[in-house]
Amino acid sequence: MKSIQSRDNPFYKELAKLSGSARQRNKSGQTLLDGAHLLAAYLDSDNRPQHIFLNSAALRDDEITGLLQRVEDIPVTQLEDKLFAGLSELKSHSGILALIETSQPDIQVAQSRFALLLEDIQDPGNLGSMLRSAAAAGCDAVFLSRACADAWSPKVLRAAMGGHFSLCIYEQQDLPGVAKGFFGQLLATSLHARHSLYDCDLRGNVAFMVGNEGAGLSDDLLRLSTQKITIPMHNKVESLNAAAATAICLFEAVRQRHAG
Predict the structure, then answer these.
(1) Cβ-based neighbours of 40, under 8 Å, separated by 6 or more
(2) Cα dist. 99→80, 111, 175, 253 in Å?
(3) Domains of the chain
(4) Which alpha helices (DSSP H) does 29-80 contain, by range?
(5) Distance, CA of 209 to CA of 206 (rounded, Å)
(6) Residue 47 φ/ψ region, left for φ over 0, alpha for ψ in the -120 to 50 degree band, beta for the rest
(7) What's the whole-model pTM score?
(8) Are strands 169-173 and 141-145 parallel, antiparallel or unpaired?
């Protein structure tokens, strides 16, 4: 097993850039998975990491040693503890990091049957939760506008809990163009809509469009929608969190499809 002891190590410098920069992640097509759970989910999706990094305590962890047995052909490097901490955002360091390639989507919008279009979602936790819900609901594609948070950032990866690995995720998208290319219903979530989500037939091709946490959907996307929908709420509640609203919409479609 190799080891890295210095911040001046060229490989470590590249990893530090990758950890802290969305631009570097986009440029390299790589990101870091932080923790045994994410790596296990990645392996369970029939993916292979490019490199594994450990801290000094990792080999005393049964879960980590079990994962290492699954990736015996992958290079492993031990990082000095402070160097490992410099790559991890977790307060209690997991002990294992994995360098992976970010997935390249292989489905076109015209082929999509159950999609999610996200416009300018800023909070990484919200975005990760939305991706997790999309994966659980069986969406075949998620399209992100140019102003969305970085889908492959450490915070989004943690919030999605492995959802990335069963989704086709398209970043930096022209969402009006995506909407025009979708063959099916385009449902726009809006607090001012007259139609309830529960009055819609969601058994065909459906794409839900969800807007920014504060501003909602842009006028351009609202105009392209085939139906504007709202989620009925008690009068004393002004609105739902964007991630919660997304989950409700997606699983109403799942419910209808399973019902017949």
Answers:
(1) 67
(2) 17, 31, 30, 35
(3) 2-101 (3.30.1330.30), 109-259 (3.40.1280.10)
(4) 36-44, 62-70
(5) 10
(6) beta
(7) 0.93
(8) parallel
Segment 51-71, tens digit of pLDDT: 999 999 999 999 999 999 999
CA distance 128 to 159: 4
State how far the alpha carbon of 128 is from the alpha carbons of 30, 33, 92, 240, in Å. 18, 14, 20, 17
Sole residue written with tokens 């369970």:
44
What pLDDT score does 214 carry? 86
Q: Does residue 74 sit in helix, strand or coil?
A: coil
Q: Please state, in angstroms and rounded to a whole number, the distance separating the CA atoms of residues 39 and 53.
A: 12
- The single residue listed with the structure tokens 């819900």 is 133
Q: What is the bridge-based pairing of β-strands 141-145 and 114-118?
A: parallel
- Give the full edge-to-edge strand order of the sheet including 141-145: 169-173, 141-145, 114-118, 206-210, 185-189, 227-230, 195-196
Sheet with 96-101, side-by-side order of all strands: 2-4, 76-79, 51-54, 96-101, 30-34
Query: CB-based burial of residue 61 (10 Å sphere; 0-12 exposed, 13-18 middle, 19+ buried)?
Result: middle
What band does 237 get if pLDDT is binned at 50, 70 and 90? low
Distance CA 211, CA 189 (A): 8
Distance from C-alpha of 220 to C-alpha of 174, rounded to nearest angstrom: 11
Closest CA to 20 of 193, 121, 153: 153
The β-bridge partners of 218 are none
Q: How buried is residue 63: exposed, middle or buried, by Cβ count under 10 Å (0-12/13-18/19+)? A: middle
